Amino acid sequence: MAALTEPSRVGSKSNRAERKKLVSSIKQKAKDVLGSKENSNNIVEILEYLQHDEKDIVNAAIQSTSRIFCHLLAEDEMIPAPGVSGSKEKYRLWLQARYNDAIRCLCNVVGTFVTVPVLQLALRTLMKFVAEESKHPFKKEGSSSNYFFPIHIIALLVPQLLSKTVVFSELIGRCKEYMEYDDVRYHVLQHVQHRISKQAKEKLNPMEMTTLCNNTVNLLHTVTMPTDEESINNFLGMIPDPDEGGKIMNLKEHRRVFTNAWLAFLRFPLPNSVYKQILINIHENVMPHMTTPLHLTDFLTASYDIGGAISLLALNGLFILINQYNLEYPDFFTKLYAMFEPSLFHVKYKARFFHLADMFLSSTHLPSYVVAAFAKRLSRLSLTAPPHALMMLIPFVCNLLMRHPNCKVLVHRPHGPRELSDDPYKMDEPNPAKCNALESSLWEIQTLKSHYDPGVSRSAANIEKPFPKVEWDLDLDLTIPQMVAKETKKKMKTMPLEFEPAKGLLGGGGQDMFDARFWVV
């Protein structure tokens, strides 16, 4: 995957004075073009400098191009005038052709240059063209409506942003300010879908696929979606008439292009890093804005079946589909049960997983045997869990018992089996309904009362005490260094060992142990 680095320049032999002189020459050519039509051929020379290797020269060429064509657009120089023909019409068409050349050259700069400030300047210039051309259109593109948006600029820009060779993290991050415009976002999402669909037909090597996926997910994450039609009022270009705006004013259309872009992207063979990036935010940034969130069912169930961290991150989105959109997924709790393994206490997303698991198991409508299975499995895992994990695990089990009083038989079972081999619980049984957890007891928590860590032993003792009215807090982010720091900061009380202070080491009378009379050689 290529990163943005400063390349060796072809013009590196030129000294600074020559470059400065050339930059001044480019700016002067732009002034001459604006001063007289006779100097219009300077436009061709300026556009050629957009293909230069020196960033100062390209920077000057971009600024000059912006100045020239923003002026021509604002003055309607490229709009057909009624009754005008001959040389004036040829000149107008020639300006249009050079304007299109400028757009292609600027998009080429975005796709090939590597200096971030130059890339951002090229992007800003293209978006200036979008704003000016939409307000001063010289081509209606076959539309009978008065509303116009220069789609051709977006169509050339999006493929450059979705590069398969260079990761444009900073440049795409700059796109966020433009994606807040309703018209820009709508047309960008349309062309993201087109670009992804086209790339899906090509054979990309793993590095190209990773680069493309990173650029795509970064661009999609810059999107800020409207929540109602009244909020569709922010436009970079022409403000559409409410009666003639058509699709651009329709919230359903915005959600449709958003949904299509995401679904096209999620069909890609995503690398793990992108998978995780999507799953972390999918329930907040994607699902609420889709036409039908159930379209994500295949993606989320496939993610849930992958295993490891990806399965953990897919939990929340899948549970929302089950809980809020009536998705039928009978194996959800069976697969959740299977995720509770000893390695779980050492993964990166441990805190997130236990937070979600606590939320999933909070329903009082769950069968007692399901809750008992989770409580027993966690108790068994506690035998090998590190101390900081136990400070979260024990309150987790206690909260399960508090929500489901029927499961308290796991604590108060005086006539249960005396030997470990007689425990009816089947740790290797994948189905929580068949593991016989409700017939067992939480003897594992009882053993933790003798744990070497005083915090763990105190926490384990709570399971035999009357439960409070509110649930215990879960120390999801507690670490061993935090536990050590907490213990070292405690103020220890000095305990008296003798009521009367000793007057000497070997008895009363103040006898000195170093007195020679007590030593025999």
Automatic annotation (TrEMBL):
One of its GO terms (cellular component) is nucleus. Residues 1-22 are annotated as: Disordered. It comes from the Eukaryota. Residues 311-459 form the CCAAT-binding factor domain. GO terms for biological process: ribosome biogenesis. Belongs to the CBF/MAK21 family. PANTHER family: NUCLEOLAR COMPLEX PROTEIN 4, NUCLEOLAR COMPLEX PROTEIN 4 HOMOLOG. This is CCAAT-binding factor domain-containing protein. It comes from Strongylocentrotus purpuratus.
